[in-house]
């Protein structure tokens, strides 16, 4: 006898395989729908986490740092790609840009002649002892991890 109260005419029906096969067949769309929902839920969760991480990680550390002061050092290393550099007095931090003697080292681009005009401006400011405004982007670096000069402006 079944442990719960049930109508007498259904008792025999509940004991047959045919009844349970009909129940399983009728529940199959719900079971499949639940499986699809669970699978899509896991996939959507992964997509959401990836999109969130991508959006916020790609821009969270990229920033342009600007500083105005006189030039401490201006130099060039001929044997090195992007070897021309500038160091400003008081420019002590620019995100992830490397430091030399506690000051930010900014490199001029040498490929394609792009950095020659900004290096010339920095050289003119150094010779005349004028203040310059240097901007560096810590997301744009050379193969050695040095930040490139974004812009140079003579301010005086």
Describe the protein's architecture and organization.
There is one protein chain. With 156 residues, this protein is an alpha+beta fold. The protein has 3 helices and 7 strands; from the N terminus they run ααβββββαββ. The protein has helices at 8-14, 17-59, 116-128; strands at residues 64-69, 71-75, 85-88, 99-100, 103-107, 132-141, 147-154. Strands 1, 2, 3, 4, 5, 6 and 7 form a 7-stranded mixed beta sheet that branches. A hairpin with a 2-residue loop joins β4 (99-100) and β5. The longest helix has 43 residues, at 17-59. The N and C termini lie far apart (101 Å).
What is the tally of beta strands?
7
Mean pLDDT: 75
Shape: rod-shaped
Give the biggest sheet. 7 strands, mixed
DSSP helix count?
A: 3
Indicate the proportion of strand residues. Answer: 25-35%
Low-pLDDT regions? none
Distance between the termini: 101 Å
Q: Sketch the topology as an H/E string, one letter per element.
A: HHEEEEEHEE
Label the structural class: alpha+beta
Fraction of residues in helix: 40-55%
Radius of gyration: 35 Å
